[in-house]
Amino acid sequence: MQILSKPQSNPLPASIGSLAVLPVFFNLRGRRALLVGGSAAATWKAELLAAAGAEVHVYARVLSEEMSALISALSLVHHPRDWCPTSFENAAIAVADSPTDEDARNFLHAAVEAGVPCNVIDRPDFCQFQFGSIVNRSPVVIGISTDGAAPILGQALRRRIEALLPASLSSWARLAKAVRGQISDLLKPGAQRRRFWEEFVDRAFSSGTAPNELTLMNSAHMIAAATPASRPVASITVESDEPELLTLRAVRAMQMADVILFDRFVAVAVLELGRREAVRVCISEDMDHSLLAEKFRSDGKHVVIVRSSLAD
Full-prediction pTM beyond 0.85? Predict the structure, then answer.
């Protein structure tokens, strides 16, 4: 028997495939953002930076109508002159709409010297980071990148995700943030907390408007007072190595599991769908997996058995 903290096959592959870019999220609240240019393209970036809470400083001699209106509406700081190296002082991020490669190169060089991450609009060779398509259900924010290969694909993905996520998700996420500390104090780690958050997510996607904090905490107190119930062992048969062919029910079961028992024919990509914290146990043909599953279950663990059809 092999007990693993992460999925494993023979031989051991990388658990995360290669990434074209690393998705990160800047906290710009109250931070200085340098924006160079007064064009319509620069206006969109200025609005985006302001929406993230940045103090946006716009350096431009000439402003488009859009930028002029945005500066007035959002009280951005306008510097009616060209940028210079001192413009980067105390900046957390820098964005420029540069008309030529030489201008873009100079801006990048100055940003690197100042230690400020920079982006030059529509000039990827001079960017240290890129803006992707955004799905905004703040505080839930989803960024989509195609590494510049197919922007239209990123936009199509954004539309599809927008259609899946209810507008009320914002209020549910804010509520989750508000009660998280209370839930940690009230409910025990493991089954109790997971039950609460699983029910929370189910309601967020099916109930529309979020309840008030008192109603939600009443639900938490009911879970705290309830007698723990053992869940039956779930069994999943995998017909393919392709994870997208799994049913939603199977994926949900794996994401709720504390322990995942699997045979050697199950693909790593399938096992990656399980909870990151779940213990994964590779079972051999001569093992009595039902006894092993019952042992984990008697310890209060939620167990899922994943078997490949090739094992039969």
Answer: no
